[in-house]
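Quiz preparation item.
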């Protein structure tokens, strides 16, 4: 069915579809919320049944292969489904209103698979002995998570994770055109969400080999993701984003604002 063939909003069947899409979006968002909260515990080693350093033991070769495979699966899913060409193809089969929610749900499920199947690599790379310094580093990790969450709300948290789309669809409103904004953190770095993740992953009082592998691979993926994302942003906002890129640094605020 093409967009011009959609049912009238007044038709009961269409209202049911809209409400179903809304429920799907809510489930996807709640799944994301559970996943990101579990991720904090997984990386920090707190309050979850399985962390980055716990689980069934395996040989080092098996652990490296499985862990790299899990991270590669997430990277492929996350990158491919975010591309404009994939969205154009994908929305031939699913309603446009749930495209973002589907992306969020798939990313969350892929991460949950990673947490479940992750193989610990327990060799210690560094271990901060002083309790005060260990607390400072652990606190810095949580500051990274705060930066991640705050940055999503500075733009549009609920649009980023699909709820805005399904809510607008429920009441029959079109999504507004994207507007380029640079609130707060975005005035100093172009990608504060990624900066928050890097801080959260690397600020570890005790760094195991498994944690180091996770931090190193995800950091490498972040730089690849930034390259792909900025290409899309230039395509969307043109010279406005190019000027922003020239003025503001990518991750660390060493450029002076003009």
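Solution:
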């Amino acid at each position: 069915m093409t967009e011009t063939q959609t049912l009238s909003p007044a038709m009961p069947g269409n209202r049911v579809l809209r409400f179903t899409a809304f429920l799907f979006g809510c489930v996807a968002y709640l799944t994301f919320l559970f996943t990101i909260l579990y991720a904090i515990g997984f990386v920090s080693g707190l309050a979850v049944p399985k962390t980055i350093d716990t689980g069934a033991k395996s040989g080092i070769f098996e652990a490296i292969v499985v862990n790299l495979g899990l991270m590669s699966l997430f990277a492929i899913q996350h990158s491919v489904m975010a591309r404009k060409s994939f969205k154009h193809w994908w929305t031939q089969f699913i309603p446009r209103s749930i495209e973002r929610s589907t992306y969020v749900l798939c990313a969350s499920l892929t991460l949950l698979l990673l947490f479940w199947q992750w193989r610990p690599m327990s060799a210690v790379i560094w271990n901060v002995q002083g309790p005060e310094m260990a607390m400072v580093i652990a606190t810095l990790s949580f500051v990274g998570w705060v930066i991640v969450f705050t940055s999503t709300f500075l733009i549009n948290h609920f649009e980023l994770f699909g709820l805005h789309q399904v809510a607008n669809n429920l009441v029959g409103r079109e999504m507004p055109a994207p507007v380029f904004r640079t609130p707060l953190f975005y005035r100093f770095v172009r990608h504060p969400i990624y900066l928050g993740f890097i801080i959260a992953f690397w600020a570890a009082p005790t760094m195991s080999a498994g944690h180091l592998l996770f931090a190193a691979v995800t950091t490498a993926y972040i730089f690849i993701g930034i390259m792909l994302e900025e290409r899309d942003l230039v395509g969307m906002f043109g010279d406005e984003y190019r000027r922003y890129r020239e003025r503001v640094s990518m991750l660390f605020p060493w450029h002076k604002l003009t």
